[in-house]
Amino acid sequence: MSTKRFLGYDADENGKLVVNKQQAKIVKRIFMEFLWGKTTDYIKRILGREGVINWDGGTKWQSTTIGSMLENEKYKGDTLLQKSYTVDFLTKKRVQNEGEIQQYYIEDDHEAIIDPWIWECVQLEMKRRERYLEEHNITRFSQNTEANPLSSKIICGECNRAFARKGWRTPSGDRKVWQCSERYKVKGVLGCGNRHIYEETLIEIYLMAWNRLLECRDMLVSDWKEKICWQDFGRWILWRLLRIHSR
After folding, report:
1. 77: Cβ contacts below 8 Å, ≥ 6 apart
2. Cβ contact 195:180 at 8 Å
3. How far is it, in rounded angstroms, from Cα 58 to Cα 45?
4. pTM score, whole prediction
5. 131: how many CB neighbours lie within 10 A of its CB?
6. Buried b (16+ CB within 10 A) or exposed e, 104-123
């Protein structure tokens, strides 16, 4: 198995995958950044900005490659054989295997970098985001997150579509407002009847919710500690349920 473009692993003299400990730290970080809510595009920008070395020794990352890493079962120690196959032995052209030839799945094939339960959680989160985009008719889970953290997060209570950020010029100056994307989908024609909301109001609502959490932290700490005590047991239960469901 070639590991030339495979971050996190090297191959020994027998071709067996062995963990590259330095690269494995980057792989673990990518998985956790995704579970913490970041998109592959956002992770790409973070790694590039920090000058993190990628699979080919450069610092330019691709969001599509990061997405492929998050779906790669090899990071949890398993291997799916014949994901692609050669269709022309003269040109060496390979195509994705869409059921044309038999595939083989090997569990515990090599040392894992990512715990299986974390890998499975990432797959669930990817599916959740896909459903979210479809449900609210959104093309991206978030966009320009650093400057616009509320992107794709404000959902209309009337039509279930996402609010979009707009700049309004008023006599008192420019203001940022959020408006349902269906309200004026056709220029000059009123669609959704839900009204706009000023960005400063949204920020104020968020801060009120956050401060409320801080005010109630003493009451919540005992509940959080209880959840931490059950965390390892919960991981095991989740892993077993996912395995049963996958069969």
Report:
1. 107, 108, 109, 110, 111, 112, 116
2. no
3. 14
4. 0.74
5. 10
6. eeeeebbebbbbbbbbbbbe
182 burial type by CB count under 10 A (0-12 exposed, 13-18 middle, 19+ buried): buried
Q: What pLDDT is recorded for position 128?
A: 92
Domain architecture of the chain: domains with CATH: 9-135 (3.90.1750.20), 216-247 (no CATH)
- For strands 104-106 and 173-180, give the pairing: unpaired
CB neighbour burial string for 41-60, b if at least 16 within 10 angstroms, e if fewer: bbbbbbbeeeeeebbeeeee
Place of tokens 């990071």: 75
**Is there a contact between 31 and 39 (Cβ–Cβ < 8 Å)?**
no
pLDDT at 246 (0 to 100): 46
Per-residue confidence band for 46, with pLDDT thresholds at 50, 70 and 90: very high
Tokens 């269906």 locate to 182
Q: Which helix (H) or strand (E) holds 155?
A: none
Residue of 90 and 113 predicted with greater confidence? 113
Backbone angles phi, psi at 6, to 5 degrees: -120, 95
pLDDT at site 182: 86
Residue-wise pLDDT tens digits, 58-93:
899 999 999 999 999 999 999 888 777 677 767 777
